What does this fold into?
Amino acid sequence: MKKLFLLDGHALVYRAHYAFISRPLINSKGLNTSAISGFTRTVWDIITKEKPSHLAIAFDLAGPTFRHRAYPEYKATREAQPEDITQAFPYIEELIKAFNIPIVSVESYEADDVIGTLARQAAEEGFTVYMVTPDKDFGQLVTDHIYMYKPSKQGNGAEVLGPKEIVENWGIERADQVVDMLGLMGDAVDNIPGIPGVGEKTAARLLEKYDTVENLLAHKDTLEGKLRDKVCEHEDKAILSKKLATIDTHAPVRFDEKMFRIEGFDRDRLKELFRQLEFRSLAETILGAGQQPVQLMLFGDPKPSAPVEEKPFKIGERDIHSTPHHYRIADTPTAIQELMHQLKKAKWIAFDTETTGLDAHRVSLVGMSFCIKGGEAYYVPVPSDASEARQRVEAFRELLEDDSKHFIGQNIKYDMLVLKWHGIEMPAPSFDTMLAHYLVEPDMRHKLDYLAEAYLNYKMIGIEELIGKRGASQISMRDIAVDRVAEYAAEDADITFQLRDVLQSEMEAKEVEEVFRSIEMPLVRVLCDMEHAGVRVDGDFLNDYSRILEGQIREAEQLVYRKAGVRFNISSPKQVGEVLFEKLKIPYKWRKTSTNQYSTDEEKLTELEPEYEVVRDILSYRKLSKLKSTYVDALPLMIHPHTGRVHSSFNQARAATGRLASENPNLQNIPIRDEAGREIRKAFIAGAKDRILISADYSQVELRLIASIAKEEMMLEAFRNEQDIHAATAAKVYGVAYDAVTREQRSHAKTVNFSILYGAGPQNISRQLGIGRNEARELIDQYFKTYRGLKAYMTDVVEQARKNGYVSTLLGRKRILRDINSRNALARANAERVAINTPIQGTAADMIKLAMIHIHDEFRRKKLDAKMILQVHDELVFDTPKAERDEVCRIVIDKMKNAIPGLGVPIEVGLGYGDNWLEAH
It folds into this structure.
């Protein structure tokens, strides 16, 4: 079968870039590779999954087209091309050439016209043609032989649209009427005017009766009322708009079957490009991961001759096979004695563990690796027999608990936890390569294999090479031959050791070493102890609560059915949309999804909730269902069988702001704003009858910090006078006495106070408060007239970010802002919001981390039995003997209030205690 795929190059590049806009892919050289990676994956997915016989990519050329000459304002409203895309294009072009895929462009014509012309010609020659594009305009070209192929943003399949789908999506009778639809309704993306006031529904209704724009205009006198006036007044715009939207299928280009045939790719060229771009995953996928033979003529005949076997692809120029190294196994008394002799002489020791899984609280220790010199490392296997394992680990106790040694690790908290469960108490480590890189490049990846490639040009042994991919077929590290595990484990310790000097220099250059030494590294020991302690959870309470929630869910379900007048799957967004917006005729004012479905996410339904009871009941059903499945039913399954506790993990290297991230389970997202969510906190209980939980929570810490950093005197005065900051804000903004502030005024002021921190504008504020946009704008204007220091701070911090390319917290944590000077308004605005918020949120993160360190140290110094067990946003939770309650409360309040001295604003801490978390909070 002859299959031609024609790719809309620019559209796919933009789509790939914006798919990662909130978390872009940045390599070690600072290049944003989102567009390059996404585009390459799209091309590869098409080649491997669709197996086309022919392929070409069309790109727009710089300069005006015939449409610009007809209408100078054509596409005039489009944002300037982001610099990241401009920088990506040379690489994309090189990759396309390496794939031996033809690039087709024609001067004065758009890629749409090139694709349209080639599609028509190829279809006439018997090809089935797929136009790969997210652009809706291409629907006008769809026939029984020409299809639209819309890849998903994240590479999860594609949507193929034929005549049937186009007709259904647009609500028209024929696919070629798409251009008439655009002629009537216009296209804001391309600045095609259309007839003002004519939307999609009106356009479809007109075409149902008049078939084409031309026929409508010929019979415009049959129209009535305002619609007739609009059509008569803007007749010329309709004709022009249809012309602008029409894809020219007779551009000066010829379909060349031989030229467009897919041939073999240039392996060496691709390998070099992938190395430059640091595309390890793509390289392994495309050039072969070493487990499957690679077919050089992969793109050709779907029934090829025997494949040619290739060597495994390595993106790093060096690997274990090409790099001199000396790795030894220490599994005899003599070998272990010799190793101990070497380790005792060393000052810096890179250390790593190999285990049977990822949960440090439940795994079995398989082995330990050590490195004290680059290129040399040792692996110590730990027997599976419990008694022998204890003896082997015990032999290293003195060394591993020696606080004069400087231990280096990659995510060393995990290794410390594993050893803690084996009775070994490691001292606070000196260097964690993951955390060092996190401070150098907080928005990037921090895994060891990535760091090795980025900084050492070294490709490490992949874990999947030993135990296989995740899934039922994956085996345990215990099942692998010792010599194979030894190379893998020793390499981990060796590379970690080598990275220390490199990352030390990087931290010094970025001036973040002080944050590393004073905050992140001391915190490792704190989190290790906190995670090991865990929090006791009452599984019986949760099981009982699950039954209560099930009853409430069934009640909510029946309410929805009764008000909707029909039974349907409330968990199905598609069915919810159909019931609300088709059966019940609730007005729908948003764009449909990419699959032409109604969007029924929480934000949109919340907007409808005040007017429609059925929507309120659907939201209630969803909330209760999520609460039950995500927390109430899930938490009992996470209780450790030996401790009766849940041991959450706290990730230091996840949030770019410096905030900790709780996972497995995520305890930071337990809802607390409604009674149903708060009830879950009752399940978190003290460890014994003679113990209680203490909860300490910073009060409005981010507002206090922004007042301090911005030196906003009016806000500082309110805090110093212990006024309610929201009431004080309302009094100033609305011009009323402090005691005369109404509940509504305070609520509005509270929303603005917190929203301003996150760069919210009039649209966001108006939606939150349910007020008009003009009223919201006036509220913001008055707010900044009141707090002029905040406005000055926001202006200054953005200006400094533009100059420096980064922002800093009070203590020196940095966040790089690559889009702060972008020509693209969307990307630039997002970077500006981050610039404003990061110093505040990041300083708050640093503050609570310092408080945790100081509290932990004081507990140890005073030999208290109290344990810090949770950190949730601005809150710390402790499990303490009742006899230590007063002493613990005094320490906690003191250390939290004074974590960062000299702020010039009082830091307030709310504190409570009780038998469970809800009582304590």
